[in-house]
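Notes from the 1:1 (GR / supervisor)

We went over the backlog. Supervisor wanted to see one worked example end to end before approving the batch request, so GR pasted a single chain during the call. The sequence is below; no edits were made to it. Supervisor asked that the structure be written out right there so they could see what the output format looks like.
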Amino acid sequence: MTGPIQMTRLVAALLGLPVCAFAAIAAEVDTNGDGLLSVMEVQAILPDITTEQFSSMDLNADGALDEDEVQAAQEAGLIPVPGKG
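Structure output shown during the call:
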């Protein structure tokens, strides 16, 4: 399965699972396999995220999001969390 259905699954998985499952999801979204999410990887599943927004989520300014930064972004409302509204 490819295309929009797979992308929908990845977005739902990345945003809907507890952060403890980050490694499993990152493995699917993390196209270069470095264990982090780059701006391009995030924009591939969340195209409305700007580079400025990504930079504000990148708390250690290393150019990538790790598990803690994704969780902090979700808690700050910078990345939507399904089921919360």
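Supervisor's comment: Residues 17-21 have pLDDT under 50 and may be disordered.
Batch request approved.
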